[in-house]
Specification:
The protein is mostly helical. The chain has one domain (about 25-200): Intergrase catalytic core (hpI Integrase, Chain A). The chain has 10 helices and 2 strands. It has helices at about 25-35, 40-50, 55-60, 60-65, 90-100, 130-140, 150-165, 170-175, 180-190, 190-200; strands at about 75, 85-90. A two-stranded antiparallel ribbon has the order 1-2. A hairpin with a 6-residue loop joins strand 1 and strand 2. Helix 2 (about 40-50) runs antiparallel to helix 5 and helix 8 packs across helix 9. The longest helix is centred in the middle third of the chain and has 14 residues, at about 130-140. It is globular. It starts with about 25 loop residues before the first helix and ends in a 5-residue tail after the last helix.
Length: about 200
């Protein structure tokens, strides 16, 4: 890569389409890269396991999730749509939470603190813009080409649910609070090669 070149940033004048992380090996590479940063690891793991907007994720307080076990949820009101939704705790999220709380460097993490606090010293959450920059940094660190940002976490959840677990667009649309599964299909970005692979399925 040439000096000063950011290959995961779109060229000037091009349409910005933030992508999901499609390959599981890249997800695992980012998790490994963030192993020494419990807060950032928790943000990534909770983001790709929940599929909620970054603003709603960053608005969580410690007490909202600290005592939840796998399978339990915390109800939220989405800041954009004002609709009800939930933050889900699965085993991966619980493991990341435990790692975060056990690596506080002796500093107390109070229930009223924001879960993803800014490192500026006050009890203020990371901004969406700051999170956007972090995600770009993580994807660039593992040499992942493409355009990535805060929507990447949400899109990755949807993409992996669809391709790895076979979850239908109607179910993913409900989770995303999309009114129409067609919106979800466009949001997740169907690639031409995926359509081609479907056409190779033999019928009859």
């Amino acid at each position: 890569m040439e000096k000063g070149q950011n290959f995961n940033h779109p060229q000037k004048g091009s349409k910005v389409e933030v992508e999901p992380i499609r390959n599981e090996k890249d997800i695992k590479a980012i998790i490994q890269f963030l192993s020494g940063s419990p807060r950032d690891l928790l943000l990534f793991v909770m983001g790709i396991n929940n599929g909620i907007r970054a603003g709603d994720l960053l608005g969580l307080k410690v007490g909202d999730v600290r005592y939840l076990k796998p399978g339990q949820v915390h109800q939220i009101i989405e800041s954009k749509t004002k609709k009800k939704n939930v933050v889900v705790i699965n085993k991966s999220v619980r493991k990341a939470l435990d790692g975060y709380f056990s690596n506080s460097d002796g500093q107390p993490i109070e229930d009223h603190f924001y879960l993803f606090r800014s490192r500026k010293g006050e009890n203020a959450p990371l901004t969406v813009q700051a999170a956007h920059g972090l995600i770009k940094k993580w994807t660039q660190a593992i040499n992942l080409k493409g355009n990535y940002g805060t929507h990447t976490l949400r899109k990755t959840w949807g993409y992996q649910q669809r391709t790895k677990y076979g979850v239908g667009f109607d179910v993913i649309a409900k989770r995303f609070n999309h009114s129409d599964p067609k919106t979800t299909m466009t949001y997740l970005g169907i690639e031409d090669k995926e359509v081609h692979s479907v056409l190779m399925n033999e019928i009859g």
